């Protein structure tokens, strides 16, 4: 069914699938969930650099998703830029309707961010810790703009994991 503007969901989705995107894992620590809180994670391909001065990034979150709800309350979060060999991590955190993220983190190598207390995934090409600067509702998503508080480049070699035409891919 086309929208009033004439573009259907399927047409829009097909057109945008031809835009290659990097794959990241957005993580946060929700201190309110349980006695010690809970770590949550979400695979994202709508992530980009916004500004160098100050250093800002943007991630697009589906409205009313668990990550959207948590980041509305928790001001600090992290991003791990996934490497080409981390396809399974991306798939694991892209699953919908999962009960808990606790098991998803159980066998992953990670350390906690100094600024965010969020998981930073081992083997990622880079990690960033961010503090939310603003949130903008845009249709069925919320754009979260974060100030980068810290970065690390734990992995010098290897390529990025990308997403193109509905599948995870590698460069080359």
Please describe what this structure looks like:
- The protein is of the alpha+beta class.
- The chain is built from four helices and twelve strands; from the N terminus they run αβββββαβααββββββ.
- Strands 3-2-6-9-10-5-4 form a seven-stranded antiparallel sheet. Strands 1-11-12 form a three-stranded antiparallel sheet, with no helix packed on it. A two-stranded antiparallel ribbon has the order 7-8.
- A hairpin with a 2-residue loop joins strand 11 and strand 12.
Question: Summed up, what is this model?
Answer:
The protein is of the alpha+beta class and 172 residues long. The protein has helices spanning 9-16, 66-73, 87-94, 102-105; strands at 21-22, 24-30, 38-44, 47-51, 56-62, 76-81, 110-112, 119-121, 126-138, 141-152, 161-164, 167-170. The radius of gyration is 16 Å and the shape is globular.
Order of helices and strands: HEEEEEHEHHEEEEEE
Radius of gyration: 16 Å
What are the segments in which pLDDT stays under 50 over at least 5 consecutive residues? none
Return the average pLDDT rounded to an integer. Answer: 91
Question: Helicity level, as a percent range?
Answer: 10-25%
Strand order of the largest sheet: 3-2-6-9-10-5-4
Distance between the termini: 37 Å
Structural class designation: alpha+beta
Work out the strand percent: 35-45%
For the secondary structure, the number of strands is: 12
Which outline best applies?
Answer: globular
Question: Number of helical runs?
Answer: 4
Biggest beta sheet attributes: 7 strands, antiparallel
